[in-house]
Amino acid sequence: MDEEKRLETLLAQIRVASAERIISKPQALVRLELVQRIIDQLKRLQRSEEQSDRRADDR
User: Are 20 and 30 within 8 A, CB to CB?
Assistant: First the structure.
């Protein structure tokens, strides 16, 4: 399940990167936005994993 979530995250990052290339913006801004989105996704993923761990501990 964790591997599936990681693959979904990577796929989402690829989609974001592809969409950003289509939109014409200064390259530094595109990179900054992409990095911020990846950080946000990783934070959400970490929170969901922590919640899963807590649920597993409660069992």
Answer: yes
CA distance 55 to 38: 26
Q: How many helices (H) and strands (E) does the chain have?
A: 2, 0
By the 8 A CB rule, do 20 and 33 touch?
Answer: yes
Ordered by start, the domain boundaries in the chain are 2-58
**Start-to-end C-alpha separation, the chain:** 18
Segment 44-56, tens digit of pLDDT: 999 999 998 888 8
pLDDT tens profile 33-43: 889 999 999 99
Q: Which residue type sits at 10?
A: L
Distance CA 1, CA 12 (A): 17
